[in-house]
């Protein structure tokens, strides 16, 4: 008995109905791909940077405040370290 549930692979060299679409996507990405990646990464950096200034929304907020508090042996609390960290990273352009 032959198994007919297997997906059939197209033979090499046989044109597919998706070839024109594939060629169009490939051509547009070859032309605009780097720009699309740059804009996407820029958006991600802006988004995470904006989250720093919304209390409780930044995923790194707790880590940063605990690290600074630990490194300063408890002398600098979160009320001081968080705004300083936000201002410093915004000034330098980093996202950490």
Describe this entry's structure for a reader.
The protein is mainly alpha-helical. The protein has one domain. It is built from three helices and no strands. It has helices spanning 19-51, 61-71, 78-92. Helix 2 crosses helix 3 (78-92).
Number of helices: 3
Helix content: 55-70%
SSE series = HHH
Strand runs, count: 0
Instruction: Tally the structural domains.
Output: 1
- Report Rg: 25 Å
Query: How far apart are the termini?
Result: 61 Å
Classification by helices and strands: mainly alpha
Please tell me what the overall shape is.
elongated
Question: What fraction of residues sit in β-strands?
Answer: under 5%
What number is the mean pLDDT?
Answer: 79
Uncertain regions spanning at least 5 consecutive residues: none
Largest sheet: none
Summarize the structure.
This protein has 3 helices and no strands.
List the helices and strands and how they pair.
Elements: H1 19-51, H2 61-71, H3 78-92
